[in-house]
Batch of 2 targets.
Target 1
Amino acid sequence: MHRPCTIGDRVSGKMSSREKKSGRQRSRFLDRPGSVANFEPEMKRDNLAVHLAIAFGIALVLYVVAYRAIEGRRTRNGPWEVTFTNSPDGHPKLVVNHPKLGLTNVELIFPDQIISTNSTVTNFPSRLEFRIPRPVPFPLPFGQCIFMDTTFLPGTLTVSMFGHEIEFLPRVIIIDHAEHPWKSGEEIVLDAKSQNKGP
């Protein structure tokens, strides 16, 4: 006759045949590919992928916000606006405007030079905005740009025209290495006599 398993038997390490059978079944279940024990590494891999995706999303959002903030600060003042045209007598003329700096219709005239209004290369007037950097030197409707820094607009712009070097800065305009204050509506004459004058 089979004796029931008592608490003392369990404490002493004795197991009934039913418990042994149940233990073997539980061991076989844990060894199966779809068991809880084998599923844990897959869950860890899934959690890692989720964490990486969240980190990437946060980094992307921070990058976009930072880029827009820097780009807005860089471009908020706007570029130099320069119109290449000619006077009624056919002399080349630059008209410089910059609304943010309060500059309007600053004219630079080259009275010793003549340009044709019927040029097949350039139609006058020609208005340019120096917003996007380009490799220098590069040609302009007349003259050429020899330096351009648009890191923070309007930046610095240097042009060479008819033997004169003209540098546009937010604070002043530098003509042949001599500083000249900006004055809206001013007409600056650059003739051969004034060429290369400066300290």
Target 2
Amino acid sequence: MSVAQKMEVWEIARVFAASESGVRRVLQHYRERGTHLPLPRNAGRKLQMTDSIAQQIREFIAARPDATRQQIKDALGLVVSLQAISEWLARPARSAAPRAGAGSGDGRGAKLLRDSRRRRPALALARRF
């Protein structure tokens, strides 16, 4: 038996300076999944439309530019919705080369922009009243 199994929830919370509810949640996750780690972020629904299917659609449209979405779906035997086909048609073709001005790729660009907008002094003053 490990030390954690002998300790009460409130004792573990005190040791780690955490809330009891947080400790209970971590212990529950551990019992259910066998690990304390969170679920992976890509645990949701998987995309049905792959790059190869999108390429097939683009080739089909190049051959038949007047084809409807339903005709594309039937001709290629796709199991995706007509909306998914529309969304892929509206996207620009992807390339392996990075976009110009894409930044460092650390994913912080949009967050920094949001933070800078949030911290404008004029807006902060207006929010007080």
